[in-house]
Backbone:
């Protein structure tokens, strides 16, 4: 089994993860691989997952997806960041934008110049020095030659899966409809040999991708891979989601509003809004969560609210034997920074990069698992930061988050930034310096010191330097059209 060349890839599950994998494998490696996807019309997809981050461009470029076509097909809007409301404290907001702040120098980042400017009373809020941030606040957007805004999308997850299915089938992926009843293992190696469907049909393969959602039919039910539980760091374990008719203009950012026992999302699409409440069942019941969400949405609900239960954490191995978990089957980190689809895409691309030729070898498996673990650990720390670094003590939930134990790596990042304004650079960190800075400052961690090189500038020079960046940013952003007007024009233009 270990020595056989990989010729047949079987993808179990046809949600966002399954169709992303099928489209990528069929389009990029389909000449030499037989790609099939098994999904059941009787088992619905989870149906959420609509906010993305800019890395999706990499995936779309690989697949040759044209932005306008994708946006029209998925009712997408543009996204320049996330507005965090009530997170530092009630009625205190900030934006984590996808943009770069100001101008760095060789010795230190822009935050050091900004910090001294704030101390001297000659700087304003940090977002004034970042086009993506300012454009979010003003509801503007533009796509320009040579000067693209660093952007992502809000998309309709159901339409996105259909869009990817078209690509996958066009490039030869075969869809098999049916409910997986049994996962058959090889007696000697314990590798997966085939899937038996309720109809009796048997689907054989060499490599299996588990995209069956939270249950992890292959990776867990069949291979008993195990799970690392992170709920002591991230205690929310439930979400309720509902879609509403749009009543407001779609803003180019996701809204994340901290609530008494969790947080609420608002994701504006062209035609509707995705809403949800992530909450901790220890402090809030499902019924109270549904009621709270319905009381706090704009516009008429267009579907019935649905409660989703989960355990935050990660599979002990993302690749085990000849099975790779992609999607919710691989673990779950709540969607606070919209990292789900990114992790699916990374798993798919990483697997293609480490794809075995003759058989499967343990070194490739270990490399895949080690890279994935490092990436997930960094994202976990970034999410914990939002909960832990807060002034909120107004509920049991927030008092727990403020005092809960955190990882050593996050503690070091917070100490380093708090003391000296420096950002710890870790390998495999999805979120760069600009992200950590915006969230740490937004959550109220203002460094005690700035880098000494800033004092090379006189106060007058610093004022001119900061003023020039701020005015340049404001002037640039003022030229861009309204976000929705831009979409109307852009999606229609050939
Ligand atoms: P699913 O959508 O659950 O698909 C599972 C598939 O497996 C289905 O096709 C089903 O038919 C099939 N299946 C299962 N069992 C069987 C069987 N026995 N036989 C045959 N087929 C079977 N990610 C983001 O990037 N941004 C977000 O904003 C975001 N928000 C989220 C909010 C919540 C509340 C949750 C829970 C997740 C969110 N995610 C987000 C993560 C992720 O993007 C979505 O959850 C995504 O839709 C999950 O896709 P999936 O393909 O892994 O699972």
Residues:
């Amino acid at each position: 089994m270990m020595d056989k060349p990989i010729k047949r890839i079987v993808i179990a599950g046809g949600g966002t993860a399954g169709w992303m994998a099928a489209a990528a494998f069929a389009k990029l490696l389909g000449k030499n691989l037989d790609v099939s996807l098994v999904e059941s019309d009787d088992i619905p997809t989870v149906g959420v997952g609509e906010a993305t981050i800019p890395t999706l461009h990499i995936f779309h470029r690989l697949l040759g997806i044209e932005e306008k076509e994708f946006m029209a097909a998925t009712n997408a809007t543009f996204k320049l960041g996330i507005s965090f409301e009530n997170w530092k404290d009630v009625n205190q907001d900030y934006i984590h934008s996808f943009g770069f702040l100001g101008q760095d120098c060789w010795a230190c980042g822009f935050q050091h110049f900004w910090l001294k400017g704030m101390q001297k009373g000659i700087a304003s809020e940090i977002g004034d020095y970042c086009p993506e941030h300012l454009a979010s606040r003003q509801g503007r957007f533009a796509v320009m030659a040579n000067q693209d805004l660093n952007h992502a999308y809000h998309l309709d997850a159901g339409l996105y899966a259909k869009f990817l299915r078209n690509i996958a089938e066009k490039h030869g992926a075969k869809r098999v409809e049916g409910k997986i009843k049994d996962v058959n293992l090889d007696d000697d190696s314990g590798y997966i040999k085939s899937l038996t469907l309720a109809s009796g049909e048997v689907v054989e393969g060499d490599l299996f991708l588990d995209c069956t959602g939270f249950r992890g039919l292959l990776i867990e039910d069949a291979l008993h891979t195990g799970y690392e539980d992170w709920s002591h760091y991230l205690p929310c374990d439930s979400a309720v989601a509902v879609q509403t008719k749009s009543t407001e203009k779609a803003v180019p950012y996701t809204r994340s509003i901290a609530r008494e026992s969790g947080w609420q999302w608002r994701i504006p699409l062209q035609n509707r809004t995705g809403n949800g409440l992530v909450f901790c069942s220890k402090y809030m019941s499902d019924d109270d969560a549904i009621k709270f969400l319905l009381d706090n949405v704009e516009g008429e609900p267009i579907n019935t609210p649905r409660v989703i239960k989960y355990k935050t954490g990660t599979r002990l191995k993302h690749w085990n034997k000849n099975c790779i978990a992609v999607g919710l089957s691989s673990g779950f980190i709540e969607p606070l920074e919209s990292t789900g689809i990114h992790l699916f895409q990374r798993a798919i691309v990483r697997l293609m990069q480490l794809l075995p030729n003759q058989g499967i070898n343990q070194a490739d498996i270990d490399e895949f698992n080690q890279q994935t673990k490092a990436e997930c650990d960094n994202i976990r720390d970034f999410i914990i930061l939002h909960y832990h670094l807060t002034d909120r003590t107004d509920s049991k939930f927030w008092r727990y988050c403020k005092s809960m134990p955190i990882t050593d790596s996050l503690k070091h990042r917070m100490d380093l930034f708090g003391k000296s304004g420096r950002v710890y650079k870790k390998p495999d960190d999805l979120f760069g310096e600009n992200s950590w800075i915006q969230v740490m400052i937004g959550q109220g961690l203002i460094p005690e010191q700035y880098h000494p090189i800033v004092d090379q500038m006189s106060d007058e020079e610093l004022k001119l330097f900061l003023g020039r960046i701020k005015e340049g940013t404001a002037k640039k952003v003022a030229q861009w059209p309204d976000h929705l007007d831009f979409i109307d024009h852009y999606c229609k233009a050939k």
